[in-house]
Amino acid sequence: MDASNAFNSINRLALLWNVRVLWPRASRFIYNTYRGWSPLIMKGSPDVILSKEGVTQGDPLSMFIYAVATVPLICKLNQISGVTQLWYGDDSYAIIGLSQLRVWFDLLIKIGPHYGYFLEPRKSSLIIKSNVSVEDTRGFSDVEVNVVTSCRFLGGTIGSDVGRDEFVSLKSEEWEHHVNLLSDIAKDQPQAAYVALTKSLQNEWAFLQSVIPHCCHHFQQVENALSSKFIPTLIGHNITPIDRDLFSLPVRHGGLCIRNPTITADSLYSTSRCATRLLVDAIKGQSNYSFSDHYDLVSSTRTEYVTRYEKTRLSAGFW
Question: Could you tell me which residue ranges the Reverse transcriptase domain spans (predicted)?
């Protein structure tokens, strides 16, 4: 579900009160920050617009403050039996049967404005399973919600396998194009192209691989662009399969850290599932969230992934 400019429309008085109750340690600082109205001066006009609602753009604490401000709203919606909610920024998500989902939806529209949360149904999506007919969703026909079988979700996608494959294929084509562009840049500026690939571009598809399962086959075209164009342009000659495996190693072990995306997909996804296990359990209501436990789990899982990767390369006979 998408809200209309929620960061700028959240009720500030309710925000300050909720921060005082739910986050007392920071409440005095936040109160001093937001007790006055920030003026917006417009060029060429004597008028001044006062910021009376929402959080201030550019405030380092704005995301934390907004999150605390929405907690009471989330708790009230959570009273609906059987609902599982996920809130990220001003986007809200609920997993539940269609009849109960309509109850949740109506309640959000009813009480959301009290907190400055104004839902926009036309920008929202109802994701249904492929075996659910459109007739079953007629309960939402009066609110103009988009009924789909798959939808983008936090950098990935959820829904049907067909929608997931289409999404990953389009992203893979986009990344192949970017690799080809970097290959052209590498002719004149090899260091800049290398840094752009290893520090930025390959981490984009690494994130996608960490949230979408069984997608390694979609990255063959990206790997072809890397092994047949980018790396040869970077080093000045064609490479063999053994060279390609060597260049996928970390720099500290003599490689270029240009990972093979067709190999990393499955391990990145399993590692991501393991690292977020405690967070998922907390969202489902199966356990209480502990930041320290979550941090320790993420750190240990990352270390295990690196160790496992290095052992795999050792077994390949490179070191």
Answer: 1-158
C-alpha 24: how far from its chain's center? Answer: 29
Q: Is the pTM of this model over 0.85?
A: no
Beta pairing, strands 48-51 & 38-41: antiparallel
66 within 8 A of 55, measured Cβ to Cβ: yes
Distance of CA 211 to the CA centre of its chain: 9
Place of tokens 């960490």: 210
Q: Which distant-in-sequence residues (6+ apart) come within 8 Å of 108 by Cβ?
A: 1, 73, 77, 92, 117, 119
Q: State whether residue 255 is helix, strand or coil.
A: coil
Given a cut of 70, whether residue 48 has pLDDT beyond it is yes
Give the Cα-Cα-Cα angle 199, 201, 205 (nearest 5 degrees): 115
Q: pLDDT of 258-306, one tens digit each?
A: 888 888 888 888 899 898 889 888 877 788 888 899 999 999 988 888 8
CB atoms within 10 A of CB 103: 15
The b/e string for 62-99 (b: 16+ C-beta within 10 A; e otherwise) is: eeebbebbbbbbeeebeebeebebebeebebbbebeee
Query: Dihedral of CA 107/110/114/115: which sign?
Result: positive
Q: Which residues, 6+ apart, have CB-to-CB distance to 9 below 8 Å?
A: 53, 54, 116, 117, 118
Instruction: Write the CB contacts of 302 (distance below 8 Å, at least 6 apart in sequence).
Output: 271, 275
